[in-house]
Amino acid sequence: MNSVDFLSTNKDITYEIRTEIKRLGRPTPDLIISKTDVGKSRNYSRNFNSSVYDRFKWLCGCPKINKLFCYICLMMGGNQSAWTQEGCVGKGRRHKATA
Ligand SMILES: [Zn+2]
User: Fold this and answer.
1) Judging by DSSP bridges, how do beta strands 67-70 and 59-62 pair with one another?
2) CA distances (Å), 25 to each of 21, 32, 33, 37, 45, in order?
């Protein structure tokens, strides 16, 4: 119920469900994301590290599509951005905290 899937597809969430979702907390699954940075002498590949959830308290993930979302925006149904729609794969695209 507190999955990214559920939150992004259900726009009219009742107060009861919202309360239950808050109790469950944000989903912080291990994702399979690897990103390749182009370096001067070689390329560096970075794999997903679940410690990002500790660093960014608003972050949540969807294991189905292996992407990161902003839990706050999903909950609030706020601004339509990559953080609530298609998801993000790294810190390349910084999320502006407007919530
Ligand atoms: Zn947000």
Assistant:
1) antiparallel
2) 6, 21, 22, 32, 31
Q: What's the pLDDT at 92?
A: 45
From the CA atom positions of the chain, what is the Rg in Å? 15
pTM recorded for the entire structure: 0.76
Q: What is the pLDDT of residues 59-86, one digit of tens each?
A: 999 999 999 998 888 887 766 777 787 7
CA of 95 to the centre of ligand 1 (A): 7
Round to the nearest angstrom and report the end-to-end CA distance of the chain: 22
Q: How close is the Cα of 39 to the center of ligand 1, in Å?
A: 30
**Biggest CA pair distance of the chain:** 55
DSSP, res 95: P
Phi then psi dihedrals of residue 47, to 5 deg = -105, 160
